[in-house]
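Can you please make up a protein's amino acid sequence together with its fold in token form to help me picture the idea?
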Amino acid sequence: MNPIISVIMPVYNTPVNYLEMSVMSVLGQNNDLFELIIIDDGSTNSDTLTFLSNLDGQKGVIVRHIENNGVSNARNVGIDLSSGEYVVFVDADDCLLDGAIEKIIAATDVSCADIVCFDYCKTYGSTKENVYYSEDSKIFDGAECRQIIRDSLVVEKGLALCWGKAFKRDFLIKNSLYFDISLVLAEDADFAIKCYCNAQKIHYLREILYSYTVSEGSAVRKFRENMPQLYEKGMAKIVDSVKQLNSEEFNKLASNFVLSHLLIIVVNNVFHPENPLNLKQKFAYLKKLCNDECFGKALKDSDYSLFSKARALTLFFIKHNLYLPVFMIAKFRQSTRKD
């Protein structure tokens, strides 16, 4: 009997304490109607490899070792290997909550939706914050799916993520929906938004079924010199996808989505404590970024009324080249942030 759910977990040198917690959150589910597919993306850590070797061959577990080619490629390999009716992506430092598989299957039985979206909690050490998309569960059918597309372009809604979802496998294959292996950042947002744009039925299940671990070493928060260019490439792909919808409203929301990521770049790159540039050079670099095609057009086209007052004010300062208050806001964010 084929599984109903294929859980796809990409792994790359994940510390064993996180990896074991993540794997056991899947294997500890209270039914056996799933398979766990672990794609090892060329790990070199001996402890990680030993842990995976001990898992390989267990009932319902597939471990596939591949050459290192990034998380997008690893997830794509998982999609092709999967045999379940739906695929669920779980990062190797995150967890499924108890009963998640059973509740996802129940939702798919009700709606047979192309995508089932569910809620998640953010975990910062011992602190947890529940994130809900809406007040009530709902099935979006046909043109109603445009509401999900619209909300996926609002970062705070938490929809532009590949985890916290179950995707019908046939839907992905039929529409050639895979992760873009050319993207290093925003690859999950690009994938999710492409899926929403192609879906005919989306089921939102108001249940916390996923735990997302926030860590200082995450791809978003750690300093990398080329972060702006990596994000800009991802944002350009997303803007192009949204353009196909021929909606001025969606185009403005896409511009807002781009600017939300510009704010991430400001905090986690331009004014990151590990950035070796001096303050004057950082101001000049930020000005150059804002003149680039992607970010420059977004600054021109966005609807600032859709941002929180704090974010709208920061964007106002950026747009008018007032970089000292932007620097002060970034330093405050770095000292107080949880996400």
Q: What stands out?
A: The longest helix spans residues 248-270. Residues 142 and 200 are 5 Å apart (CA to CA).
